[in-house]
Write a structure and sequence with these properties.
- The chain has a 7-stranded antiparallel β-sheet with strand order 1-2-3-4-7-6-5, sandwiched between helices.
- It contains 9 helices and 7 strands; from the N terminus they run H-H-H-H-H-H-H-E-H-E-E-E-E-E-E-H.
- Helix 2 packs across helix 3, helix 3 packs across helix 5 and helix 3 crosses helix 7.
- Strand 2 and strand 3 form a beta hairpin.
- It is globular.
- About 26% of the residues have low confidence.
- The protein folds into 2 domains: 109 residues, no CATH class; 139 residues, Phosphorylase Kinase, domain 1 (2-Layer Sandwich), CATH 3.30.200.100.
- By secondary structure, the protein is α+β, with helices and mostly antiparallel strands.
- Keywords: Membrane, Transmembrane, Transmembrane helix.
- This is Transcriptional regulator.
- It comes from Azospirillum thiophilum.
């Protein structure tokens, strides 16, 4: 997967994600991710999906995988030769949980949908949506020269452009109460379709992003919280849109920003 003298394998990338990569390979993997943005984005998505799974199945994910559920390939002794990165039991247990979710979805009930309807809540955005929002924040919030495609000085053009591309009447919500100013936005795309990304900055240069995608759900949902390392996100659905506010903020501050965005879009 890499053109370096010590190529990085898919197994090593997963070991890096699981925190099980040997120290001597860390620099090679990080170099590979820096040189291969597609892999970097893919594993950011995996990280976000795992974080969302952990919110609902954390106690299970932390338990060792029962032997009866351990895949046969993981029980075989490795062949003689150079040591290969191993799949940790925690990672395999995570795969088992993920597989069970896939079974629920393909079975017609819909694992996430069933879980939330049983609790009397609306269907939430998918794990992939949250992972994409976090990945977009990480990629663009650190940009110095080109953090946005269209700046706030062309706000009307930005709104009209995004409205046309998303097929929705878009607005640029203000979050001045939280101390952030809009600096502009850009058009992105995920596996579903076009996405709007707004970026805001405070006086200290800290940035937050608002990730918006059209959604078939018009009934709305409560705020949901997700976290991946130091990046936190609050996401919800409202008026045919799925939205996520993302930043390196504490949960209370992020909640205030999300409430201000919600109020601005519904005023």
């Amino acid at each position: 997967m890499s053109g370096t003298r010590n190529p990085v394998s898919e197994a090593e990338l997963h070991a890096w994600l699981d925190g099980e990569l040997p120290d001597e390979r860390l620099a090679d993997v990080e170099r590979h991710l820096a040189d291969h943005p597609d892999d970097a984005q893919r594993f950011e998505r995996y990280r976000g999906q795992r974080a969302l799974l952990g919110q609902s199945f954390g106690p299970l994910i932390d338990q060792p995988l029962p032997d009866r559920l351990t895949p046969p390939f993981a029980m075989r002794e490795p062949a003689a030769g150079p040591a290969a990165p191993r799949w940790g039991r925690g990672a395999l247990w995570g795969l088992a949980v993920a597989a069970s979710l896939l079974i629920f979805v393909s079975g017609g009930a819909g694992g996430w949908l069933l879980r939330d309807r049983m609790a009397g809540r609306a269907e939430p955005p998918t794990a992939a949506f949250i992972a994409d929002a976090v990945a977009a924040h990480r990629v663009f919030s650190v940009e110095v020269r080109h953090p946005v495609e269209i700046g706030v000085d062309e706000e009307a053009h930005l709104v009209n452009w995004l409205s046309k591309r998303l097929g929705k009447t878009m607005r640029c919500p203000k979050v001045t109460r939280a101390g952030y100013q809009l600096i502009g936005g850009r058009l992105l795309a995920d596996s579903v379709g076009p996405v709007a990304l707004y970026m805001y900055e405070d006086a200290a240069g800290r940035r937050i992003t608002l990730y918006i995608r059209p959604s078939p759900n018009t009934s709305g949902s409560a705020f949901r919280f997700a976290q991946d390392g130091g990046v936190r996100a609050l996401y919800w659905q409202d008026n045919g849109l799925a939205l996520a506010v993302t930043g390196e903020l504490d949960r209370d501050t992020l909640s205030g920003v999300a409430e201000e965005v919600y109020g601005a879009l519904n005023s």
